[in-house]
Amino acid sequence: MMVDTTVMAAFSLASPLSTLHLSNFRASSPLFSLRPSTSSSSSSFRRLLILSNNTFSNPCHVNSSFTHPFHSTSTFLMSTEDSFARSSSSSSSCSSSSSDDNHSSTIEDDDDDDDVVGAVLDKDDYDSSPPPLPDRWDVLGLGQAMVDFSGMVDDEFLMRLGLDKGTRKVVNHEERGRVLQAMDGCSYKAAAGGSLSNTLVALARLGGHSIGGPPLNVAMAGSIGGDPLGGFYRTKLRRANVNFLSAPVKDGTTGTVIVLTTSDAQRTMLAYQGTSSYINYDSSMESIISKTNILVVEGYLFEFPDTIKTIKKICQFARDSGALVAVTASDVTCIERHYDDFWEIMENYADIIFANSDEARAFCHFCSEESPISSTQYLSHFVPLVSVTDGPRGSYIGIKGEALYVPPSPCVPVDTCGAGDAYASGILYGLLRGASGLKGMGTLAARVAAVVVGQQGTRLRVQDASQLAQSFGFGVEGSVQADVGSDQISSL
């Protein structure tokens, strides 16, 4: 069954206090009870239309442009007390044999455009000369701001610390200090980490050129401490053309994730939340959201009860301000623990949901044998646009009870970590750059994901992003307006 010719709206950058943009879309689904809608004569009413030929018209992008004239060495050295020091030794692998050596830890920055070892990032480097801000934000991400430390270890190192290989564990400040102290003398990398930041950096790099429109304005809000790690996090995002807009929490401690990888490629992760679970909702946050086209909420924030309340307020204000709201599923266990909270946000506020096939099934309470087509179709009754990735098997885009299959982009896989984050950046890029068809938008996203899968590391590199953007060329409008019959649409 082809897409219903009466499908007119999946999203809207709507006028405040109006639910009209969803009522037309959802009225035709038996799974919805039609909510009262209000009419609006506001001249600011803008709508993203999904048309009968499976193309769409997108008003989501703005004409302001800016650059980030921020250049600073960001490789740094850190002791177990989170202070900066200069390296006095050459790096070595983190094995049990090095645990008794009296060496300083060397932390290498993981950026592809800055890999200097042994430099110090002074406080002045990241507090002075903030870049000018644009009038509006194309995308604002709301998520956990955590610095990732990643290094290679051996099995004996894990055993000595009593860590179960391949697990993820939440630790307190003392436990984190104990692990970092054990890593003293080892070489490891630091990054402004997190799933959401991967997506935002990839989007900013794709949209960093005037191809198909002015450079995209991308930002993140969350919580960092007023410590050196908080300054590092803000600096790293700035360097990637992503502004971190939230003020640091005085006397707060920036969250960290220690990723310990063994030779068999298994990763053991230790997460210290710090202040990352805290989201401050105030007039400053409202001002930022009122200037935002798409708000992306990271699912990991649902782990914290007080934060969930704040998320609801922020999503409501975003909708009232005319922004689209996107939610990332983040993790199956997180969905299982906070199932009702996720669904409250999805049903009442979300315009877009990003999930992998396991997460999509968890939302639907489907068994593991259930096809991702079914979960994509089911979720699209509740959320206007559903994006579901299924690893090397491809992906699906769901609208109004239907699932459009997107084949995977060919690549030689090297590291699959970060593939879903990259895919989400491609979907957002397609929306903001005016891709005219769902199939083309999905194909674009699959190509971005394939590039990240074909490299070591989770971040889309600057050079790759530039080449991808030029190849899309927009350009996309001509390539994606294919016949609906060739789009492999699955229907209930």
From TrEMBL:
<feature type="compositionally biased region" description="Low complexity">
    <location>
        <begin position="88"/>
        <end position="99"/>
    </location>
</feature>
<protein>
    <recommendedName>
        <fullName>Carbohydrate kinase PfkB domain-containing protein</fullName>
    </recommendedName>
</protein>
<dbReference type="InterPro" id="IPR029056">
    <property type="entry name" value="Ribokinase-like"/>
</dbReference>
<feature type="domain" description="Carbohydrate kinase PfkB">
    <location>
        <begin position="187"/>
        <end position="460"/>
    </location>
</feature>
<keyword id="KW-0418">Kinase</keyword>
<dbReference type="InterPro" id="IPR002173">
    <property type="entry name" value="Carboh/pur_kinase_PfkB_CS"/>
</dbReference>
<dbReference type="InterPro" id="IPR011611">
    <property type="entry name" value="PfkB_dom"/>
</dbReference>
<comment type="similarity">
    <text>Belongs to the carbohydrate kinase PfkB family.</text>
</comment>
<dbReference type="GO" id="GO:0016301">
    <property type="term" value="F:kinase activity"/>
</dbReference>
<dbReference type="InterPro" id="IPR052700">
    <property type="entry name" value="Carb_kinase_PfkB-like"/>
</dbReference>
<dbReference type="Pfam" id="PF00294">
    <property type="entry name" value="PfkB"/>
</dbReference>
<dbReference type="InterPro" id="IPR002139">
    <property type="entry name" value="Ribo/fructo_kinase"/>
</dbReference>
<feature type="region of interest" description="Disordered">
    <location>
        <begin position="88"/>
        <end position="135"/>
    </location>
</feature>
<dbReference type="GO" id="GO:0009507">
    <property type="term" value="C:chloroplast"/>
</dbReference>
<feature type="compositionally biased region" description="Acidic residues">
    <location>
        <begin position="107"/>
        <end position="116"/>
    </location>
</feature>
<keyword id="KW-0808">Transferase</keyword>
